[in-house]
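Q: Hi! First time doing this. I have a protein sequence and I read that you can turn it into a structure. Is that right? Here it is:
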Amino acid sequence: MTGGGRNNIIQAVERYGAIMFVSFSVGNTGPFKDITGITTLAESLKKELIEENTFKISGQYYNKVSYIYGANGSGKTNFLAALNKMQKMIIMSTVLGANNNKLLEVPAIKKELASPIETYKFDIDCRMKETYFEIQLLLEGILYSYSFTTKDGKIQTEVLTKKNKRTEVLIKRTSPNYEDIVLRSGMGSFKKMVSVVRDDALCLAMAGMLNNSLANMILNEIMSYRVINMASVEKTPNFDEENTSEEAIKRYLKYLKIADPTLTNLKIDLESKLDKHVLNEDELENKELVIKNIQVSVQSWHTIYKDHKPVEEIDLPFLKYESNGTIRMLRILPAIFETLDTGGVLFIDEIENGMHPNLVKLLVNLFNSNETNPNHAQLICTTHDTLLLNGVRRDQVWFTDKNVYGETQINRLSNFPNVRGNDNISAKYLQGVFGAVPNISDFE
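A: Yes, that's right. Below is the predicted 3D structure, encoded as structure tokens:
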């Protein structure tokens, strides 16, 4: 299902007051045997760079940017893929709940349904255990925690809580059977329709599909989180009618000219194909799934000189003549600006892939600057670029470390003893002080 598809089942993303991504955790999938994860909640005792690198929301500080470091194969990509899998499970829950056989034959849906969640492979006991997902977000000053477990394609448990002054359980599910779902407070309006929840579908997703306002608010936020892998960024459809406007292209050119000073203009043409499927079963009548495929072509204009004086311009196919790094930069800029403009959350895997470290630092600093990031947008990225460790808070940095049994844990830099705010974090990391680096000592 293409990038815009997440908004085709659930209504277009709306932003609700004070919003913040707080945490994501996962267990028994990929290299993660035990539950592990990250949080953007800043530690109150760490005062360094608090004005520059954090936001204050509802009395708490949250990091604008979070970095995940680790050796190749240690689980960085798997961690972001787990979040993407959670989003797909939300989408697939509504698709399965439609009970529409024609819909299940759509190639993108068939492909996703044929990709079940894999449990942790290197412990035989994990084959029979549940896979765990949990996400926390702050909406209108209230902390919402949403978690579920799945095993053999069935939802085993599902819990939604909210915490203001006290914690209140809104959804409590204790088995795949819809009869074992308890709904309270803002989820109460879904009680009369709870029988539509299949054993392989999430209750929260179905409640959102059937217009429960609280479910929609939470799901719209989760589904707005964009996960981009820079190693395969050419497959990410970041362009649409809005982000290819004349104003948007001017913003891109400002940064692309740093990589290619001859560049004077761009023209981005889109060809959209909409594939619509009506969900006409029971309570889902008149609901519609729209799968959108976009073909993109880009022309660029460049200055031609004579004796170092401009004499004319030439237009060239951008994707053919520009460098790999410049192309990647254009691919990622729409997502970055959209996130900054909406106060959203952007996850980028291998942010430095194909780009010079100075360009990477420039893009990251868009999130750190109050001028370019007035809406409290957040960036979470995996990277090997140690230059990014200059000028960070200790609670901004995370390390994925895999042991000899294949088990990965994610550890926060601030949890390591004897690490001070003025330490050379980059040097210590490369020396292996925090683990999370390849062990090459046997080859030296």
